[in-house]
Structures are given as C-alpha cells and as structure tokens.
Amino acid sequence: MSGTEKETGFTFTIDGVEIKAHAGQTVMEAADAAGVYIPRLCDHEGLRHQGSCRVCTVKAGGRSVAACTQPAAPGQAVENETPHLTKMRRDLVEMLFHEGNHLCPICEASGNCELQAMAYRLDMTEATKFPYLEPCRALDASHPDIALDTNRCISCGRCIRASQDVDGKGVFGYVGRGIHRRVAVNGENLADTDAQVSDHAMSSEVCPVGCIIRKRVGFAVPIGEREFDKGLIGHEIEEKRK
Amino acid sequence: MNNGRNGTGANGLTASSCNVAPVPQAEIAAICDRFGNDKHRMLDILYDVQDRYRSIAPATMDAIASQTDLTRIEVEGVASFYSFFSLTPKGRVTIRLCDDIVDRFCGLKDVVAAFEEVLGIKVGDTSADGAFSLETTPCIGMCDQAPAAMVNNVMLTSLTPETARAAAEALMAGQSPESLVSDRFNELSPHERAVRMVENNVRHAGAVLLGPVPEEAGLNNAVGMRPSQIINAVEESGLRGCGGAGFTTGRKWRFAASEKLDRHFVICNADEGEPGTFKDRVLLTERPHLLIEGMTIAARAVGAREGILYLRGEYVYLRELLETVLEERRRRGLLGKEILGVKGFEFDIRLQLGAGAYICGEEGALISSCEGLPGEPKTRPPFPVSRGYLGYPTVVNNVETFCHAARILGQGAKWFHAMGTEGSHGTKLFSVCGDCLNPGIYELPYGHTVWELLEMVGGADAAAVQVGGPSGTMIGRDSFHRKLTFDDLATGGAIIIFNGQRNILEIVEYYMSFFVHESCGYCTPCRVGNVFLQKAIQKFQKGLANPEDIDYLKDLSGTIIETSRCGLGMTSPNPILSTLKNFPLVYAAVSKPSKDGIRDTFDIQSAIDGARKIAKRRSYIFDKDFTQ
Predict the structure, then answer these.
(1) B 524-543: CB under 8 A from A
(2) What fold, for A2-79?
(3) Which residue in the set B73, B381, B520 is minimally distant from A177, CB to CB?
(4) Residues B80 and A177 sit within 8 Å (Cβ to Cβ)
(5) Does B383 lie at the interface with A, CB-CB under 8 angstroms?
(6) How far is CA B560 from the centre of its chain?
(7) Contact A179/B519, CB-based, under 8 Å?
(8) Which residues of chain A are in CATH 3.10.20.740 domains?
(9) Does A151 lie at the interface with B, CB-CB under 8 angstroms?
C-alpha cells in the first residue's frame, strides 16, 4: 500500500508553501500532515468529510472549493490565508453566530468552543452586520448523563457522523430543510435513544460548541486554563511545521 | 366571526390528536414490501403511507424504519425534507394554491379568499373534520394559466374567484377532485385528462420538437450504430443541456460511457422547478415517446440497462400518462429485453415521483432523491458521470435534451447544427408568461433578441424581463437587444414578463423568499445567507434602508456565491444583483442616509410586537393587523 502511495506521491502549494500529497488525499488532509492549518468547523479528525460549514473554503485553480472534500491535485497553487478568504470565512462564522443563540459569557464551552476560537482567529472583533435570527430551540435534559442545548448547535453534524460511524449507533440525524434544517435525535428525546455518555459522539472533542453537555462535569477546568486560552485554534497543527 | 372559526379549528386539532390510532404494523409492512423493503424507494413508501394515513406520524416512521433497515431519524430526515410530506395529519383533499409571483399578479389573493371562505379554513390549516387542507406552494409550472392549484392529483388552472368558489363548493358538497375536471373523468384517456386540466398553449412550433416528428426514427438509426458513433453524432450536433447549465451533452455521454463499471444509469430530469418554466410539461404531455426514445438512445450510447424518469411531484397529474407510455413501449418491444430485436440491447425505466423540492432539479440532489434520501446535492468530485446513482456512472439530462438527442439521431447532426448560432445550436423551447398577450410555449432557434420574442408574444410594453427564472437575470428595456443564447442571455426556458406597473422590489423579495424556502440547508452560506438577503430587501421595502445597505447586499451576495456548495446558492443572489445592476434607481429611490449616521438594523415595532400582544396593549399606528 505505502509503496503505491509513494509512487503516486506529488506536491502542490498552499500560499506558496510546498506540500507533499498522495493520490486520494484531500487538500486539507495533506495540509494537516504538512503543518499548514486550514480553518474548519464541520470537519474533524477521524470522521467522514462533509463539506457543509464552508469555513475551509480555499481557492484552487481559480475556483473556490471546500478544502476538506477537494482532492489534492499535482502542481496546483492553493490560496488559503488571503485577506479575501479570511473575510469570506469570517462572514460564514458570523452567519453561524447569528443563526443560533450564542451567549459566550454564560456558556460552559467558552474557552473550549471552536466557534468562539474561530471567531478570534478570523478577527471577528467588530460589531457584526447581520440580523439575529433568535430561533426558539428546545433544551433536552431528558437523559440522565447528557443534556442537549440546541441553541448552540451550528449544524456541523459531527455528532451524527461520530454516532453512526464510530459508535455504530445513529443517535443523531438531520431533519427539516433550509433554515429549518437541524440536528435531531433518533426518538422523542435523547433518553428515548441508546445514547451513552461514553459514546464518542458525546465526547468533548466531537461537539465543537456547547450543545452536547455532559452532566455533572461542567466547569471542571476553570476559564482561563481552557484549550483556546493556550493558543489560537489550529496552533497544534501549525506547530508541526516549526 | 374570525375568532369563532379559529376556535373551532383549535378544538378540532386537539380532538384529532387525542385519538391517535395504534400503528397497524402489518399494513405498513405490506406497503414497504410492495417496494421490496428497499430504502432507496423511500419516497414511494412515504407517499403510500401518507395516502393511507393522511400523515407520516412518528410511530409510523418507527415501523417504516424497521422494515427498511434504517433508523427512525433517517426516515424522519426524508419525510421532513420534502414539502409534500407531512408529519401532522392533512385533509383527505389537499388544495395547494400556486403562490408564484405571476399568480400573485394574476389575482391569487381573491382566489385564496374564495377558497378560504367556502372551506372555512385559512391557508396553512386543516379543517376540523379532516376533510380539507389548504396550502400554498411555489411555482407548479402553470404560469401561462395562472392562478393555478393542485387538488390532490388534479390540476386546476386559470382560476378566477368565481371558478375557485365553484370548485370549493363542489368539493364541500362531497364531489371528488376528479369530477372538477369532467363528470366522465373515468372514461377519458390519460392524455385527454391531462389536456382537459392543463392547456398546452403551444404558440409557435419549431422544426425539432413541436413540429411533425417521425416515429422512432432516431432509435431505428441508433440500433444500427456503435455507441461511439451515437456519441459522436450528439457531440457533432452541438447539443447542450437544456435545463439551464448548458453542459455539452455528447461530452457527458462520453464520460459516462468511458467508465468501466458493470452498471450504468440514465436519468431524466423532469423536475422543472425554476419558477416560470413549464416547457417540459408540454413535452411530457405531447412528446412522451420522443423523450423515452431519447433516453433509450442514451442508454445504448453509455451502456445503461436501467433508467429513471424523475417527475416533479407537482406534475403528478402526468404520471398515469407516462406510465401508460412506458407500458406501451414495453409491449411494442421498445423497452425491455432485446429492444427492436437487437440482442443484448436491454433497457427499462422506472418513474420516480418527486415530492416538492426545487433543489432536486440539481443533478446530485436529484440522484439523492432517487436513492430515497433527502434531496441534498452530492460532493463533487466525483461527478455523476463517474459515480452517480448508487455509486454507478449516471447520465442525467433534461427532458428537452433527450428529445433533441432523439431528433438528432433521426435527422442527423448537421441538420441540427445548422440551426441557431455559433455555440448555441438547434432550437430551444421558451416558456413565456407574465404580462403579455400570448403566454405559452415558443420553439425558436437560438439567437433571437428579447425584443423579437416580446413582439411575438405581445409583450412589447414590458418594463422588465426575467430571463431564466429567479436564478437567471432580470433585464430592463435598455437590454432587450440582447440575444437568447448560451453566450449572452442563457436560460433554461423561462421568460417572465413584467410591465411598468409591477414593483421590482416585490418581485425580488418574492424570489428571495423562494430561495429561502427551497435551500436544502446543507451549507451555511445558502442556508443562512439567503435569509439575511431576504431580510435586507424587506428593509428596502419598508423604507428603512441606507445607501450602505446597497454595499451590504453586494458584499453578502458575493460571499454566498463564492462559498456555496451547489448551483442554488451560486445563483440565489441573482435577483438582487441583476436588479441592482439593471434597475439601480429602484434601490436608490428607497434608501436614504439616516440623520444620525446609525444604520437602522433594529425595528423596534416588530421587536416589541410579541410583548405588546401579551400585555394586550395594541397600537393603532404600528400594528400590522389590528383586528387580530
């Protein structure tokens, strides 16, 4: 296998940096391996690529594509951190903030939240220009060990894929269409499903925001010592190159 | 009066939700069994369940899930995606009034009022006795005879308040929807039924599709040709896809034919959902054999043995006609094993009915829908020609494209290539509607100017023309010299004419509401961004916009176009961008700088509306509807 990969190996560039890749790799996979961070929210290591948040939009061959689903191509010049793309990404992150009900100061995930961290990385420091949609979303506290606060859900679907592909369960799924499309549970409420707090889907790394809450472990790590208090989102990938 | 009626409705709903019948597992199992318990036939299963139980209730979904080896949430994902499925009980007769902008301009409001008054329910409601549901739905492909409505599987067209009232009264009196068409409905042939319900309105027949067409000339020639020769002929003709995108048909077939997998598929996209487009409706009614002939030729070219005809749910009234045609062709040896007696030439088609989702006109979403999934576009690459339906190479073409292909094989590539202009060969069906004397179908060679078309249709006093529907371009009189070709004004066929009395912002707001309704919601920019665009246009309508809001519209549109995952989001800002470009004064006239320099993003009156209702403190000045 690795022999074939070696044979089909090639290089392309991201913002002028040469990246090694092999056939079948996406732009993002190759970038991650090479220590170049491409911002993303719906994509997560170990889960199927979905390409829905569009935060990983890059320019490849003059076209805008999602880096998480776009196959890497030999010799291609990919643009990643340009002012134009950063602005697009900021727009998308702002859209996600305005679509749901995100109140960072009272959120348990603050400091561990990828949406919040992405906003900092993309310099979302000014007043936003979009209207707030202020949806009316329910809280599901039916399960003994897990609560769902879908006000914070950004429809990334990581929990859906983790439950299906890693846990082999299918606790979550999408329902509805358009602006009414949302993540829902396989039953009347979460207690009605076979969800367990030990599921990969329920782990803190899968939900990028504070939607899936494990009961009785809130604020175990104090604010100020949380993941993104240590560095910008993506720093662990970028450190590979240093 | 209003209060009394609402009260009954609410009581009725409570009563019906109390006596939920236990789910008859055996009946559900029998329905699933009819479709081989195949999860890919989920739309058919859900249609049958809904027909039987008036809704797709949660417990029913559990039963369907266990039959088809899915989880309930997967079934719910499909059932909740499509507009024509309902998780709550619907009436035995569902009336869906077409709520397109053209219908609105043709007096939809009074038609709605007539239905509401006679049926005693409002749009969005189901009557307490479970007899009727009244809904609105986006364009149902009847813009040349608007206002129109679907009554279960029956189409009502050219409605007036009087005919609407008469229809509603007949339904109230217990008559069937079919009896509204004819009291001898059962004796009519499928074709007679279709043309009684819906006028063809063919105003100009061209040389290729709507003029005289010799029977099976294309297929007869194709059986004597090698697949590569068929593809060469289609490529040499210059035929490009007629659904809107305009991809070269021959190349698409060549890509699919070059894939060495053991199964290939040919799918016909009869999901013409672009508002103002109704050309395929006429081909499906008058040239169904030509269409199937074209699909059969494509099957021979790419080596497909299986085909699907994806018919939009709104055209359910044509299902019987098409099923009859398929059956007849099987009988005549034009479908099935050994077509025209040729050994190894095997091809058959199943009809898949859609369920109310514009997005399914997108190639990948259409394939998802055929697979029994929510109509979400697929990640590209891989493209459908290499990995399409169930992962096999798949050719998806529009109805008109297949019809053209059959004629090209019959008459020769040169004949077709000689018509039209360089880069846009052959003829095109234009579906013309709106403010003109003769709305209907015009088959014309590519290359006519908008002026020429307007003169033909009796629309010379047009102030604006929407070319290609909402995802196309709106042009003003200074652009009417432009040509209807792929390189200038491309269109899947829709030509919507607006006179000087029409409010451009009202049209744009309607089109944005359409895209918000029809976005699948998969990707962020299309799902959320279109809502923001619609809200921004509403600001202009209310006179709350600043000049900076024009920049905001352009900026947000740019993000949506650049980051969206499929063609819907890549074109949904077009109504705004093309009117900003071609009708800038419309926006300038209603936007004014605010005195204090603060952008007014906050509408205090709508913000306190909820609280005001609770406190029962109504405002005579600001309440939108003080009677509530």
Answers:
(1) 524-525, 527-529, 531-532, 535
(2) Ubiquitin-like (UB roll) (3.10.20)
(3) B520
(4) yes
(5) no
(6) 22
(7) yes
(8) 2-79
(9) no
Distance of alpha carbon B298 from alpha carbon A209, whole angstroms: 49
* φ, ψ of residue B459 in degrees (nearest 5): -130, 35
Q: Is residue B115 part of a domain?
A: yes
Tokens representing B371 are 């697979």
DSSP A222: P
Is the pTM higher than 0.90?
yes
Distance from CA of B520 to the nearest CA of A (A): 5
CATH number of the CATH domain containing B427: 3.10.20.600
Taking the C-alpha atoms of residue B323 and residue B194, their distance in angstroms, rounded to an integer, is 13
Closest CA to A18 of A39, A38, A34: A34
ipTM: 0.96
pLDDT at B31 exceeding the cut of 60: yes
Least Cα distance to B486 among B233, B272, B245 occurs for B245
Q: Give yes or no: residues B232 and B181 share one domain.
A: no
Shortest distance between the Cα of A179 and any Cα of chain B, in A, equals 5
Residue B137 placed within a domain: yes
Mention the CATH class of domain A88-238: alpha beta
Cα diameter, chain B: 81
Which has the closest alpha carbon to B231: B246, B250, B249, B215? B250
**Structure confidence at residue A77 (pLDDT):** 97
* Chosen from B532, B550, B570 to mutate, greatest number of chain A CBs within 10 A: B532
- CA angle centred on B207, ends B205 and B212, rounded to 5°: 75
Q: How confident is the model at residue B307 (pLDDT cuts 50, 70, 90)?
A: very high
pLDDT value at position B614? Answer: 84
Residue B333 vs residues A47, B216, B340: alpha-carbon distances, Å: 49, 12, 6
Mean pLDDT value of segment B106-135: 97
Q: Distance (Å, rounded) from C-alpha B337 to C-alpha B63?
A: 37
Q: What is the pLDDT of residues B130-180, one digit of tens each?
A: 999 999 999 999 999 999 999 999 999 999 999 999 999 999 999 999 999
| Residue among B516, B523, B556 whose CB faces A54 most closely | B523
B493-533 tens-digit pLDDT = 999 999 999 999 999 999 999 999 999 999 999 999 999 99
Task: Provide long-range contacts, Cβ within 8 A and 24+ apart, for A190-196.
Answer: A190/A140, A190/A142, A190/A143, A190/A146, A190/A148, A191/A142, A191/A143, A191/A144, A192/A142, A193/A169, A194/A169, A195/A143, A195/A146, A195/A163, A195/A169, A195/A171, A196/A145
The nearest CA of chain B is from the CA of A193 a distance in Å of 10
Q: Give the strand pairing for B464-467 and B494-498.
A: antiparallel
Asked if B517 and B476 sit in the same domain, the reply is no
Q: Is B71 within 8 Å of A186 when comparing Cβ atoms?
A: yes
B187 and B149 in a single domain? The answer is yes
Q: CA-nearest residue of chain B to A181?
A: B521
Task: Say how far apart CA A234 and CA A32 lie, in whole Å.
Answer: 10
Instruction: Spell out which residues of chain B touch residue A51, defining contact as CB-CB under 8 Å.
Output: 379, 523, 565
**8 Å CB contact between B42 and B68:** yes
Q: Please report residues of A whose CB lies closer than 8 A to that of B518.
A: 178
Choose the mutation target among A25, A76, A95 for the interface with B, i.e. most B CBs under 10 Å: A95
Distance, in Å, from the CA atom of B579 to the CA atom of B585, rounded to the nearest integer, reads 9
Distance (Å, rounded) from C-alpha B106 to C-alpha B123? 18
Closest CA to B560 of A38, A54, A130: A54
Tokens describing residue B203: 């105003």
Cα–Cα distance for residue pair A182/A195, rounded to 1 Å: 18
Q: Which residues of A touch B519 (CB under 8 A)?
A: 177-179
Both structure tokens of B370? 């055929």
The answer to whether residues B359 and B517 touch, using CB atoms and an 8 Å cutoff, is no
